[in-house]
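For the sake of transparency, this paper describes our internal protein records without simplification. Because each token names a local backbone shape, the row as a whole describes the fold. One such record is reproduced below, unchanged from the form in which we store it:
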Amino acid sequence: MKTRITELFGIQHPIIQGGMHYVGFAELVAAVSNAGGLGIITALTQKTPSDLAKEIARCHEMTDKPFGVNLTFLPTVSTPDYPGYIDAIIDGGVNIVETAGRNPQAYLPKLQNAGVKIMHKCTSVRHAVKAEKIGCDAVSVDGFECGGHPGEDDIPNMILLPRAEEELTIPFVASGGMADARSLVASLSLGADGISMGTRFIATKEAPVHENVKKAIVAASELDTRLIMRPLRNTERVMNNPAVERLLEKEAALGKNIKFEDIIEEVAGMYPRIMRKGEMDAGAWSCGMVAGLIHDIPTCKELIDHMMSEAEKIIRNRLLGMLS
């Protein structure tokens, strides 16, 4: 399948594995890229730029296909060494970067001068338009359904994607609620040039996370996620569990007076415990509503091959058949 995204990134299929904390390691990234999609390493999971350089080198040993790096710009007191991470990306020969979080404009010139293609994650049309204006090559448009941070506008993809198509001239991919061939074809119909999947790729054989995490996603329905940190305007969609229930009780009790320190026990430092040790009730972890559409744990190649063959059937048999 040929779209503006496959042409931009030099990939076979318009399917991207988005950056995910303690998930986007070389094993998964290489598996996605080898299957014809675009795998993405999560930079800030690597504690230092040197660690990222090693992870990039490890990924190059596993694939000769294009892969990218996610670099999230966080509003934190202790700012990560972003120039160091960017040097590791450029020196490592990576020419695709997925930026996320705050406006990446200050960091774009160095990446662009090195020939790096930049795709920025956005949860609103206005942010996507801004990303185009500052020189991003593409955007990932994240609907309200997505796991992780869906923004504060609460716009689902049935509205967000066609609005993005009306306003943008650069390629964009749909993120949030993406799991299968139906997701892909629907997103293309709504104007997107491909899709980005997070939660779906966690439930694959190559995802380097504890088996408990994969089983939890398969067992979950579309009703099993919750929105936390809404009063802090840092909304995150997570899998429901006892820790999340405690957190929501604190939010309800404290109301507008809540501070991040009040919920730190449920959110800080949880990803190693959950993703590596499988302590599923330890705290909050990002998961999309799309869990309700995930029923198995295939290899990345099995998943992508099946998606592409089914997408062709939907287009040729169902959609074209309707015209006749």
About this structure: The chain has a mean pLDDT of 97. The first strand starts at residue 15 and ends at 17. The chain has two domains: 4-204, 221-286.
